[in-house]
Specification:
With 244 residues, this protein is mainly alpha-helical. Helix content is 65%, strand content 8%. Helix 1 packs antiparallel against helix 2, helix 2 packs antiparallel against helix 3 and helix 3 runs antiparallel to helix 5. It is globular. It comes from Sphingomonas parapaucimobilis NBRC 15100.
């Protein structure tokens, strides 16, 4: 285990890290699987005094991408988190393109699963657009708040940064996604859009709060093994670049 060395982000432009690639891979993997496996299913849970409560199954795992986003910014700094967000955005766009092409290909006469493929992998352009825009803006808002708060707090009170950045990031995500995806859509009243928006936002923030001890463990492990504690002093916070 190394001793943490406090450095400014601008001094780490060409640094090599032991675990960064694995954290990046975990982020992109969770992002893609949450969109492919979890997004299309509406599950139900029975709550005391409430009864059955439906929810999108993707919410169980998608918030993990925000936890990993917090870890990336906290340990490696905003510039590397920005690079990972762009990688995730490109991966989601390619997934949407690949899904469209595969579903659109004419099926062989002997292959009878086309209808199932269309249900699972069929992409509604409006929802894809909403998802990509919300993810991109929400993740960058999350990373920016996380990095700024770390400098403001002098690296203390990690819990305040993880929860505060998630409040903002998930708020931006939800405020973009639900109106853009469902406002005026069949079966979606303005009231329902607002209710679902705030419900999903509250659930995602709640997940972040519950996972705070896990975040502490991962951040502590990575800072010790990487041997650095990056502060975003003098960082260019523009989202429109991928270079560290």
């Amino acid at each position: 285990m190394g001793v943490e060395r406090v450095v400014a982000s601008r001094d780490m432009e060409h640094g090599a890290f032991r675990w960064f690639d694995f954290v990046m891979a975990a982020f992109v993997t969770i992002l893609l699987l949450s969109n492919v496996i979890g997004a299309g299913k509406v599950a139900v849970i029975t709550l005391p005094l409430v009864g059955q409560w439906p929810f999108g199954a993707g919410i169980l795992f998608f918030p993990l991408s925000y936890v990993i986003g917090d870890v990336l910014t906290e340990v490696y700094g905003y510039a590397r988190a920005r690079r990972v967000i762009w990688a995730g955005t490109a991966a989601v766009l390619f997934m949407a393109f690949m899904s469209y092409v595969v579903v659109a290909l004419p099926p062989a006469p002997s292959w009878t699963n086309q209808a199932a493929y269309e249900v699972i992998f069929g992409q509604v352009p409006r929802i894809v657009l909403a998802s990509v825009c919300a993810f991109w803006a929400g993740e960058f808002a999350n990373a920016y708040v996380m990095a700024r708060m770390k400098v403001w707090t002098g690296g203390r009170h990690l819990w305040s940064r993880t929860i505060g950045s998630t409040l903002v990031g998930q708020g931006v995500d939800s405020l973009i996604f639900y109106p853009l995806a469902f406002w005026g859509a069949v079966g979606w009243t303005p009231h329902l859009v607002v209710v679902v928006l705030f419900t999903q936002w509250a659930l995602k923030v709640g997940w972040e709060v519950l996972l705070t001890p896990v975040t502490y463990l991962i951040v502590g492990f990575l800072k010790r093994t990487e041997g650095v504690d990056v502060f975003d002093e003098g960082t260019d916070f523009t989202p429109f670049r991928a270079r560290v």
